[in-house]
């Protein structure tokens, strides 16, 4: 039986922290965020016995990347979420430095979690175990211990099991770093979730025509969609381009053909999933009606994060909205999941010159905009969306230095759908061809104003809070 010595401290942190977090104007009204402490990756996203479950990396004890538990929410409709008891705490030898990211599967009616037990040594080294935990009759999770030890040929950075069923087997992808310090994705196969056989590397830095692409690939997720197979991954250390891969920790996807018999993946180049300032470690799942959903961490583990002003209220980071994926010409498209339309209030409209558009309250707002370009959206002088005929530029001041920083989406952007919630903006370009997700921290009420010479057609809704 796992020890639970930290439980009183967590309980106190939550009782003290939640009222404080809710007093923060930056706290989201309809996105998932931690009641207190730090949230990072979505984990174990699954539709199981009529409910959606979303677990998450959570440090309930502070705003630093320490003491990673699995928090747990569930929902019947992807809109209204309820808290569930903490699913996993790092209280065994094999996960003592964190119950790191992973996934959930339905194993013959048993909700089963696959996660990484992270272990650090005093000399700076580390190891990792891929572990299982199975839901018990009370709804809690019983740890069943490691099922995959650290494979030979890799450093201690092997983690983030994403497990799925295909025909008669279970498959697992893992993020890994080889001994040459190249990021890789490993594939494993099992008949029973307990005994795993390695099928080798299926993608990574230096493989399948990909050049030098980073020292570690985190959080892989492989799935079929439309006529293609997609591999999502987070390649750390990919070289920055002039206008792409500008986050030190980017999220990317490969699109191609996967052959189960040969365990081989033929794919094209790395593409950005989201070109905004904050997006990382997304995970997907399937709905009962076969839709592929994605949710991401609206955060990145970089030097700016600890300067986010929400830490003064004892919390940091949030999830993206749930998104629905589709494939078009081999590309991954993302749109807000249709269930979110339930949050819309009355529809309002504007048509005319962008400069004459009314100012809007961006605290909880959804916008659908059409224009041929030259429109600038100004969110409380803190975040600017500069929409031109052939590109989109997002500008935000550095939280550390105050200088303007930029992110780009290149292409003919004719339609934007923008979802706003307190301190976040998600911009869906051309029905989901591109997405830019970013946090911003206005000091005055979040007002959105428009400028520019172009004709603008807008439909917009105020969104109702639901958390
Ligand atoms: C990605 C990540 C994962 C790891 C987890 C730890 O953000 O670094 O690779 O499992 O976060 O919280």
TrEMBL record:
GO MF assignments: beta-fructofuranosidase activity
PROSITE patterns for the chain: GLYCOSYL_HYDROL_F32 (PS00609)
SMART domains assigned: Glyco_32
Boundaries of every Glycosyl hydrolase family 32 N-terminal domain copy: 31-336
Superkingdom of the source species: Bacteria
InterPro entries: ConA-like_dom_sf, GH32_Enzymes, Glyco_hydro_32, Glyco_hydro_32_AS, Glyco_hydro_32_C, Glyco_hydro_32_N, Glyco_hydro_beta-prop_sf, Suc6P_hydrolase
Reaction equation(s) it catalyzes: Hydrolysis of terminal non-reducing beta-D-fructofuranoside residues in beta-D-fructofuranosides
Listed Pfam families: Glyco_hydro_32C (PF08244), Glyco_hydro_32N (PF00251)
Enzyme Commission number(s): 3.2.1.26
Location (main, coarse): cytoplasm
The protein's enzyme class: hydrolase
Glycosyl hydrolase family 32 C-terminal domain sequence ranges: 413-448
Compartments where located: Cytoplasm
Keyword Transmembrane in annotation: no
UniProt keyword list: Carbohydrate metabolism, Cytoplasm, Glycosidase, Hydrolase
Pathway membership: Glycan biosynthesis; sucrose metabolism
Keyword Cytoplasm part of the UniProt annotation: yes
Family from the record: Belongs to the glycosyl hydrolase 32 family.
Name of the featured protein: Sucrose-6-phosphate hydrolase
Organism: Franconibacter daqui
Lineage: Bacteria, Pseudomonadati, Pseudomonadota, Gammaproteobacteria, Enterobacterales
